[in-house]
Amino acid sequence: MKKIVVACASGVATSQAVASKVNRLLKENHVDAAMKAVNIRSLDTELRDSVAYISITKTTKEYPVPVINGIAFLTGVKQADELNKLIELCK
User: Fold this and answer.
1) CA–CA distance, 54 with 13 (Å, rounded to integer)
2) Average pLDDT over residues 71-76
3) Rounded mean pLDDT of 15-25?
4) Measured between alpha carbons, how far is 6 from 68 in angstroms, rounded to an integer?
5) Torsion angle, alpha carbons of 48, 53, 59, 64, to 10
6) pLDDT exceeding 90 applies to what percent of the chain?
7) Percent above pLDDT 70 for the chain
8) Closest of 65, 75, 78 to residue 36, by C-alpha
9) Secondary structure of 43-80 as H, E, C letters
10) Mean pLDDT, residues 41-49 taken together
11) Rounded distance, CA 7 to CA 54, Å?
């Protein structure tokens, strides 16, 4: 099972909401993946065994995994594009 990390400042509200929505969308597309919502301070540790990072904020930092636009899952704008990227990463 592939692991996807979602991070926000506290790891509670926004990241949990996005993780829940993405989890539902992936299941609807028959993709087996585990979502993990974390606070930003534990992000580097959590990324070690992940296939993607869903970012709630705009970032310029380089990460060892692809970064997915989490705002798309909050607003719905370009959500399908970001979901398709995740599906490809989980194959």
Assistant:
1) 14
2) 96
3) 96
4) 9
5) 30
6) 87
7) 99
8) 65
9) HHHHHHHCCEEEECCCCCCCCCCCEEECHHHHHCCCHH
10) 93
11) 7
Taking Cα atoms as reference points, which of 37, 33, 35 lies closest to residue 13? Answer: 37
Is residue 11 over pLDDT 90? Answer: no
Judge whether 79 and 32 are in contact, CB under 8 Å: no
Q: How confident is the model over 65-79, as a mean pLDDT? A: 96
What are the structure tokens assigned to 8, written together? 């926000």
The predicted model scores a pTM of 0.93
Q: Within 10 A of 33 (CB to CB), how many other CB atoms are there?
A: 20
Q: Which long-range contacts (CB under 8 A, 24 or more apart) does 55-60 make?
A: 55/7, 56/6, 56/7, 56/8, 56/14, 56/15, 56/18, 57/8
Quote the distance between the C-alpha of residue 1 and its chain's center: 15
